[in-house]
Amino acid sequence: MTKWQIEGELRNGEGELLDFRFHGCEGDSDALVLIGHGVTANKDREWAITLSETLARSGVSSLRFSFAGNGQSEGAFEASCPTKETRDAEAVLDFVCAQNRQHKGRILFAGHSMGAAVGVLLAARDKRLAGLISLAGMVHTAEFAQRKFGAQHAGASFMWDLPLCPLSQAFLDDMETVGSVLSLGREIQVPWLLVHGTADTVVPIQESKEIAQQAPNSAFEAIPEADHIFSTTADEMARIVCDWIQLQS
After folding, report:
1. Total Cβ atoms within 10 A of residue 146
2. Domain 20-248 has CATH 3.40.718.10
3. pTM
4. What pLDDT digit, counting tens, does each position of 60-73 carry?
5. Can you spell out the DSSP letters for 47-89?
6. What is the per-residue pLDDT for 104?
7. 3-class DSSP state of 155
8. 158: Cβ–Cβ under 8 A, 6 or more apart, which residues?
9. pLDDT for position 182
């Protein structure tokens, strides 16, 4: 089967260096999963590491990365927003495809929270993706920004009181401009898995159910009592993802 080759520096269209970790392996699967995180996070969140390691054990390669301005990636956190992160994700896809032109493997994108909204934006316009995975996926971006940060002030507040994550007007404006990715659901023609916890208090599980109903080729899985970051259920989430990928081969 396909052995993915990924090495060198990964930069986005703005020239910012994006931090990534590639988990390559030989196995029965020809798939490569690109893993993108959510707001204020990075590639080294426990759920992302668990997912990569579980995929590797099942013979599936993966690449997890931090969007610009997050984690160890270059760029300003204040510039982080769905539209810019979609361009980052596209740069990751360009990077992988350029090094594997002769390969016939499948590339899938797995996004968590706002990273899932990024995945929808990417999959709706980029036909190189063979599959999409949404984990605790955000759908209504404008509503989320208002609900979580509506009482705060751009330039003077921090997201969830994290000093490295200042709330910016660029973020608020873009969340409002995107508004919602619900209408894009019907444009996602590739196989699409949506996984959401019933105890998620950050993004309501109803958002995943709602957009799954729009998509022609979707599968929805609820994890009882799982929170937004799958803090005690990451192994179960990863197993669901791996089983679904194997069914698509």
Report:
1. 14
2. no
3. 0.97
4. 999 999 999 999 99
5. HHHHHHHHHHHTT-EEEEEPPTTSTTSSS-GGG--HHHHHHHH
6. 81
7. coil
8. 165, 166, 167
9. 98
Q: How far is CA 100 from CA 5, 69, 161, 176, 237, in A?
A: 7, 27, 42, 37, 29
Measured CA to CA, the distance from residue 93 to residue 126 in angstroms comes to 9
Any bridge partners for residue 33, and if so which? 62, 108
Q: How far is CA 157 from CA 84, 128, 152, 203, 210, in A?
A: 21, 39, 6, 21, 32
CA–CA distance, 82 with 90 (Å, rounded to integer): 12
CA gap 155, 199 in Å, rounded = 32
Predicted confidence at residue 2, as pLDDT, reads: 57
Predicted confidence band at 1 (pLDDT cuts at 50, 70, 90)?
A: low
Which contiguous run of DSSP H or E holds residue 36? strand 31-36
Answer yes or no: is pLDDT of 113 > 60: yes
**Type of residue found at 198:** T
Residue from 139, 153, 105 nearest 211 by CA: 139
Strand order of the sheet with strand 31-36? 20-23, 61-65, 31-36, 106-112, 131-135, 192-197, 218-223
Tens of pLDDT, residues 32-60: 999 999 999 999 999 999 999 999 999 99
Question: Residue 109 carries which DSSP code?
Answer: E
Which amino acid is residue 178, in one-letter code? V
Nearest to 106 by CA among 123, 131, 135: 131
